[in-house]
Design brief:
alpha+beta; globular
Length: 353
C-alpha cells in the first residue's frame, strides 16, 4: 500500500489482515467485571474519573458523546490488534520491523495506551448511561495497515483528528448551557493525554514529538466520516445513521503531499464544479484557506472525477496535520465548523513533516 494512500484514507479500506476485529477482549472489555476493571486501571496507570456525571444531556452533547464513544472503541480495537501483531511477531511487526526500539518498552507503552483508551470508552459510555442515554456498543473493524511503520503513522493521524475534535466538543459543551458543562475539564484531561500519545507516535517515527505550536482544529463531522473508513459496513449494533452527524463523500489525494508549495491531485466519486466549488485547507489555528479547483476536472469511467488544486504550504500551514475538503463556494469560511457545513467531499487527511 502506498504511504500516501494510508495517510489520506482512501475510499475503500483494504485490510491487510484476515478477519475483521471483533470484541469482547480477554479482559472483559467492553463489559469488564469489577475485578477486570481494576486490572485495566492498573495497566492504564489510573482509575476511571469519579468526577461529576450529568443526569441529563442536551441533544448536541448526546451526539458528540456518541461520536467520542465510537472513536474510543475503535482505538481500543486498533491498539489491541497492533499489540497482537507485535507480540506474535507477525511479518512487518517483528523485531526487525520495530528496531531500534526496545520491544519490551514498546509493548509496555502500547499496552498502557490500550488500557487508557478502554477507560476513555467506558467513561464516555458512563456519561451517556448516567443521563439515561443508550451506551455505544462496538462495531467490527478493519485496519488498512500491514506493517508497524504504517500502523504508527495511522495512529498518529487518527490521534491528530481527535486532538482537533475534542476542543470543538468542549466549545459545544460550554455553549449549550447543559449539565455537561461540568465535564469540560474532563475533556481537557483527555485532550492532554491524547497529546502525550501523539508525541510518542511521532518520536517512534523519529519526528519532532511536538509537530507545531498550534495544532490543527477540526469538526465532529470530519471525525465521524474518517472513523467510518475503518468500520465494517452494517456491523454496528447501533446504526451509524442514527447519530446526528454528517457523513461526507470521500476525498482521495493521489500524489504525496510535501512540506512545500506544490500541486495536489484529488479524486472523488461524483461531479466537481470547478467554477462554484473550491478546496479548503484547515491547518494549525489559522483561518481556513480556500484555493481554486483547476478547470476542467477529468472524468473517467465509473464516475470518478480527478482534478488538481494548489497546496500552498508556505502560506503559513502547520507542520504535521492538515485537513482538506471540497466545499460549495469559494469562501471565505471562518472556522472548521463553517468548512464542514459547506463540505461536499472530505476530509482529506494530510500529514507532512
Amino acid at each position: 500500500m502506498l504511504l500516501t494512500n494510508l495517510i489520506v484514507l482512501t475510499t475503500s479500506v483494504t485490510a491487510a489482515a484476515a478477519a475483521p476485529f471483533e470484541f469482547p477482549l480477554p479482559d472483559g472489555f467492553p463489559s469488564p467485571s469489577p475485578a477486570q476493571l481494576v486490572k485495566i486501571e492498573q495497566g492504564a496507570g489510573g482509575t476511571l474519573a469519579s468526577s461529576f456525571l450529568p443526569t441529563s444531556l442536551k441533544d448536541p452533547a448526546v451526539t458528540t458523546l456518541q461520536l467520542l464513544a465510537n472513536n474510543e472503541l475503535f482505538e481500543v480495537a486498533f491498539f489491541t490488534e497492533l499489540l497482537a501483531n507485535i507480540t506474535n511477531n507477525v511479518p512487518g511487526y517483528d523485531e526487525a520491523a520495530t528496531a531500534p526500539l526496545d520491544r519490551t518498552y514498546l509493548i509496555k507503552a502500547l499496552s498502557a495506551i490500550r488500557n487508557q483508551e478502554e477507560l476513555h470508552a467506558l467513561g464516555a459510555n458512563g456519561i451517556l448511561a448516567g443521563a439515561k442515554q443508550a451506551p455505544i456498543a462496538p462495531c467490527k473493524y478493519d485496519f488498512p495497515v500491514s506493517s508497524f511503520k504504517e500502523a504508527i503513522l495511522l495512529a498518529q493521524t487518527f490521534t491528530d483528528i481527535a486532538l482537533g475534535t475534542v476542543p470543538a466538543v468542549q466549545a459545544l459543551f460550554a455553549a449549550d448551557g447543559g449539565d455537561e458543562q461540568r465535564n469540560i475539564p474532563l475533556l481537557g484531561s483527555i485532550l492532554a493525554q491524547e497529546g502525550e500519545q501523539v508525541g510518542f507516535f511521532r518520536y517512534v517515527q523519529q519526528k519532532t514529538p511536538s509537530a507545531a505550536p498550534f495544532l490543527t482544529g477540526g469538526s465532529p463531522g470530519f471525525a465521524f466520516t474518517a472513523l467510518q473508513r475503518f468500520i465494517v459496513p452494517d456491523s454496528c449494533p447501533k446504526p451509524l445513521s442514527s447519530i446526528d452527524l454528517p457523513t461526507f463523500k470521500p476525498l482521495n489525494i493521489i500524489n504525496k503531499p510535501m512540506a512545500r508549495n506544490m500541486t495536489l491531485w484529488y479524486a472523488v466519486e461524483g461531479p466537481v464544479d470547478c467554477e462554484h466549488q473550491s478546496v479548503v485547507y484547515i491547518s494549525g489555528q489559522n483561518l481556513p484557506l480556500a484555493v481554486p479547483i483547476a478547470c476542467p476536472a477529468r472524468r473517467s469511467r465509473g464516475g470518478i472525477a480527478k482534478f488538481k488544486a494548489e497546496f500552498p504550504f508556505e502560506a503559513g500551514f502547520a507542520n504535521g496535520f492538515t485537513i482538506a475538503a471540497v466545499v460549495n463556494g469559494t469562501g471565505p469560511l471562518l472556522s472548521p465548523d463553517a468548512v464542514a457545513a459547506a463540505t461536499v467531499y472530505g476530509p482529506g487527511l494530510i500529514e507532512v513533516n
